[in-house]
């Protein structure tokens, strides 16, 4: 079961997402939500509950839809977990802030505003290595490899890095092929593509 307040906000956002998907040309690019699907949200929610995730890092917050799925999992797992989520677009930050407040999870989620590379270095200084149970990458696709390399030291052994848009949209395919090649050549991880909707790469840190 999903927390009722979180479910109410998810349901409202899902209506907005459905509208955007069916009226893509009518929504200005700077106002697009670009959220994960409900299927992917459910997948990560179950996965995070199964690994008892407590500390989560997200690169690419959008309007907070994915973060709400993560927050529900943390609330099921622990009393003192946290999510750190990064974005640089004010429209999305303002929208996510309202959504988190409405869902009652503002105290659980810390929004970091700015460039992900800089913030990831700051997070390493602040929290050290092997701190996060799960890291989600869903930002500028051309930077996925760089984000992965910055994130790998931050995730604990047995922790997971998830990456969105591995299969779709097709315009990202060349960058995703490069990302998969990079990740799967690393002897310290094991990785698999899960073909749900846009496609997720699930990478577990072995050592």
Task: Describe the structure using short key phrases.
207 residues; globular; 7 helices; alpha/beta; 7 strands; 7-stranded mixed sheet; 44% helix; single chain
Précis, in short:
With 207 residues, this protein is an alpha/beta fold. 44% of the residues lie in helices and 21% in strands.
Explain what the structure shows.
This protein is of the alpha/beta class and 207 residues long. It has helices spanning 4-22, 38-50, 65-77, 90-103, 116-127, 144-151, 173-184, and strands at residues 55-59, 82-87, 109-113, 132-137, 155-163, 189-194, 200-205. Helix 6 links the parallel strand 4 and strand 5. The relative contact order is 0.14. The mean pLDDT is 96.
Overall 3D shape = globular
Helical amount among residues, as a percent range?
Answer: 40-55%
Q: What is the string of helix and strand elements?
A: HHEHEHEHEHEHEE
Q: Which regions are unreliable across 5 or more consecutive residues at pLDDT < 50?
A: none
Number of helices: 7
Multimeric state? single chain
Mean pLDDT: 96
Strand order of the largest sheet: 3-2-1-4-5-7-6
- The number of E-state strands comes to 7
How would you characterize the largest beta sheet?
A: 7 strands, mixed
Kindly provide the radius of gyration, computed on alpha-carbon positions and rounded to a whole number of angstroms.
16 Å
The percentage of residues in β strands lies in 15-25%
Distance between the termini: 33 Å
Helices and strands in order, then pairings?
Blueprint: H1 4-22, H2 38-50, E1 55-59, H3 65-77, E2 82-87, H4 90-103, E3 109-113, H5 116-127, E4 132-137, H6 144-151, E5 155-163, H7 173-184, E6 189-194, E7 200-205
Parallel strand pairs: 1-2, 1-4, 2-3, 4-5
Antiparallel strand pairs: 5-7, 6-7
Helix pairs in contact: 1-3, 1-4, 2-3, 5-6
């Amino acid at each position: 079961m999903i927390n009722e307040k979180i479910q109410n906000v998810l349901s409202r956002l899902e209506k907005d997402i459905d509208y955007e998907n069916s009226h893509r040309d009518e929504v200005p690019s700077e106002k697009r939500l670009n959220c994960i699907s409900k299927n992917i949200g459910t997948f990560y929610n179950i996965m995070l509950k199964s690994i008892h995730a407590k500390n989560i890092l997200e690169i690419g917050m959008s309007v907070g839809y994915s973060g709400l799925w993560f927050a529900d999992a943390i609330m099921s797992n622990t009393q003192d977990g946290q999510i750190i989520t990064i974005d640089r677009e004010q429209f999305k930050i303002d929208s996510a802030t309202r959504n988190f407040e409405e869902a009652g999870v503002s105290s659980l989620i810390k929004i970091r505003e700015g460039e992900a590379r800089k913030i990831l270095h700051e997070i390493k200084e602040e929290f050290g290595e092997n701190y996060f149970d799960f890291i989600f990458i869903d930002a500028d696709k051309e930077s996925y490899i760089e984000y992965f390399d910055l994130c790998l030291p931050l995730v604990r052994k047995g922790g997971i890095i998830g990456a969105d848009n591995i299969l779709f949209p097709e315009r990202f395919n060349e960058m995703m092929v490069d990302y998969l090649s990079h990740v799967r050549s690393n002897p310290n991880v094991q990785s698999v593509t899960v073909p749900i909707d846009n496609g997720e790469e699930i990478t577990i840190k072995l050592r």
